[in-house]
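Model: You mentioned two targets. I'll fold them one after the other.
Researcher: Yes, keep them separate.
Model: Target one:
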Amino acid sequence: MRDKVVLVTGANGGLGVAVTRAILDGGASVVGVSRKIEQSAFSDKTFVALKAEIKNLQVALKVVDGVLSHFGKLDALVHLVGGFAGGKSVAETDDATFEQMLDINLNSVFHVVRAVLPVMRKNLHGRIVAIGSRAAVEPGSAVGAYSASKAAMVSLMRTVALENRDAGINTNVILPGTMDTPANRKAMPTADTSKWVRTESVASLVVWLLGKYGDDVNGAVFPIYGRDA
């Protein structure tokens, strides 16, 4: 991945740290985006921190401009931004929760993909990897808004794969089960974490998809469910 430039959204989250670290270790330069991120998050000289909340296309375009101003090009997007809300049935779910899940899990990737595609299509090459959730294909009770937003994201990304394969752009989605992150450990202190998905496992797959062996993979949806599968 040397000489590659990767935009990582949610770069300092529970999964983001592992993914960003793996990409940097692979030799790529990374622009890490988050609402609260500092340059000190990673010591590598090839890392640039960019504070932003991708809530519309205008913000996403500014982020892409920031990548281009720092490195002069953009080879890949890894979208890790996501959020969770649950505990209520569909009938009990209020409008605000449903809209929040759509904003975080669907709209954010919609905005940033629209911002990166013109650059990638011009270069006739690009990689897009988005992180979804097992719930996108195996919804459970009391998580309807979350599951629906993740399912819609998967559909959107598979459409992007079809629409841009002519320009050498590969788009794929990873669907992890419950991941072993500090936030999940805090939320579920009595859970058997040995069955959870290691963030390093997801990071390794991301790096593989961004590398040369990812040339043959487009429109795929990868389940990583851990030992609880």
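Model: Target two:
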Amino acid sequence: MPIDVALLGCAHPHVPDVLGVIASEPDLRLVAAWDEDRSAIPSVLAGTAVGRADTAIRRAHAVVICAPTDQRPALCVRAAQAGRPMLVEKPVALTAADAQRLAREIARSRTPAMAALFLRQLPALERLRGVLRERLLGRVADVAATFAHAGALDRWFEGPTAWMRDATRAGVGGFGDLALHLVDALAVLVPDEPPRLAAVALDELGGTGLGRWAGVPMSLRSSWAMRPGGLEITVAGGDGTAVLRDGTLELHRDRGEPERWVGPPPDAGESVRAFADALRSRRFPRDGLTAAVRAQGVLEAAVRVA
């Protein structure tokens, strides 16, 4: 039986990833596309375009929400009231407090919801988690993480997507948009000791942050204006260093050649695939928005201090 999907919000850089996954999965079918700005709906979706978000929600079995951040809470609530499982871009609300309230409201409705934290589906991250779990690096000394792309240089945030550079509509800028993924990834690696940021230095398109993770110093850097960009997480320990670079994990020891494992690079479409798998199996993570809410709270607290 096909799974009918509605897309709420078409002006987001990850919309092509969403559409690519829907087109590649034979049991997924896009039945409705909505955007408050009708001109933001791509011409290829003209046949599915609708004038009201509620119409899109009613037509579908599940919804993917890529609308501007200031619209996400209301759309999530409407999807939850209709009992439609949802995948929502992060951050799920303009502030962590609003996101927490939204997560509680959705939880009360018992409607499944997931945040689009696609680094969680990265095989190399799970591999690095195993390295840390087995203590192959010895005692960890520090961690440095970077996530960046050249989107601002490549004019991703012009026209319908310009809202992403407006803090009143997006809630975060270049640093928060990508550092939220880094904070969540580090929380995945050591769930019992999530990262904490003590200080940040921001510019319009990115920034850096300092804090602690798993009891050791941590530095984060993210940017919308870095070429070639990519993901890199370096964990240094007494017995070696692990370097996760995009989809490749290298383990450097004092002796011998580095051990290398090569996997796929980060792919925003993987969060859509994970959502589709949950729809098929009817097995959703509990509190599927909690990780995104917590990561946003970590960033927000550090920015307030700054």
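Researcher: Noted. Anything on target two?
Model: The chain has a mean pLDDT of 94.
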